[in-house]
Every structure is written in C-alpha cells, then in structure tokens.
Amino acid sequence: MPGGHTLRAYVLGFAALILLAAGAGWYVWPLGGRAPAPPAALYSLSFPDANGTEQALSQWKGKVLVVNFWATWCAPCVAEMPELEALQNEFSGRNVAIVGLGAEAADRVGRFRDQLGLHLVLLAGGFQSIVIARNLGDNQGVLPYTAVFSADGALLHTQVGALRPGQLRAWLDAAASTAPGSR
Fold first, then answer.
1. Are 131 and 60 in the same domain?
2. Which among 23, 50, 121, 150 has the fewest CB atoms less than 10 Å away?
3. Does the structure show a pLDDT above 50 at 39?
4. Total domains in the fold of the chain
C-alpha cells in the first residue's frame, strides 16, 4: 500500500517531536515546579543496594559523604569506579563514606559490582537518581556527577563529569581533617 509508508513516516515524526518536546521540557522546566531540594533532604532517602537490600542515606549522617551519580552505560562513570573504591579504602578510618548512586535497577547494579569486583557501596536509584543529581546542581544532566557533603550535611563540592586525578582526594583530605571523629 503506497500510503502506508507515508503514514508511518508521519507517525514516527510525530512521536519523535513529542519525545523531543518532553526532553526539552524536562531540561528547561524546574523539577516538580519547585526550587532544588536542599542537600539535607538527601538524608531522608533510601535505595536498594546491589543485593536489593534497602539502605537509608541517613546511616552516613555525621560522616563526610561522597555521592557519585553514575550508570553502567556511562564510560567515564565506569572508568572512575576503581579510584572511588581505592579512596573509600584509604579514607574508611577517617569518617568518610563514598556511595555510588546508579541510574539503574538493583539487579544491574549487582551484576556491575560483581563484574568489576567492587566492595564500594553501590545503590540503585533508577531515574530518581538523575532527578536528585539535578536538584543538587547537575543542571546539564551529565553523568558522572559527584557531590561531596560535610559531616554536618552541607554541600561542599560538586563535579559535573569525570573527576580529575587527585581531585576527590584533595577534597576529602580537607573535609576529613575537620570532620568529627577524624584522626
């Protein structure tokens, strides 16, 4: 049927236009019509870990907290995981916690953790993790996105895109030296 191809092209074009408008609206329009959530709101959230066990972010209150927003399909995210793991090991006795909040489901996070042999805390935030990153200043919607919070919950640093070598270590050295319970 000759008109069938034309109709299909119009339908596909219309669908693409709707998706483009929705994407532009998500980027331009403030989330939920509200101002970005204060960093303290982060501690009221819970997510499943790589084993599917619900983990409350409040368990890291009182520590310097690094939240790294990532995804398995994001090459720079995957590339910085070994450094995050090494820094977690290095700073574990200095009142610091590093948590990866993946834009994934728990089963994918678990497979990813196992494939890379990570012991770092990885949580499954799904699409909500992208919204949280945006509310914490990731206005470009770029992954990875890293946010560092003081032991009292204040947002200290953010990084859009991959961390530069030594960048997170310098931030943690400064923050951990003033955190309660640090050496």
1. yes
2. 23
3. yes
4. 2
Q: Among residues 120, 117, 145, 121, which one has the least CA distance to residue 46?
A: 121
Neighbouring C-beta atoms of residue 36, cutoff 10 Å = 15
Q: Which residues contact 68 (CB under 8 A, 6 or more apart)?
A: 77, 80, 84, 98, 99, 100, 101, 144, 145, 146
Same domain for 7 and 28, yes or no, is yes
The single-letter DSSP state of residue 165 is: T
Q: Are residues 23 and 69 both part of a single domain?
A: no
15-38 tens-digit pLDDT: 444 444 444 344 433 344 334 456
Structural domain for 173, as ranges = 37-178
Same domain, 31 and 42: no
pLDDT one-digit tens code per residue, 43-94:
999 999 999 999 999 999 999 999 999 999 999 999 999 999 999 999 999 9
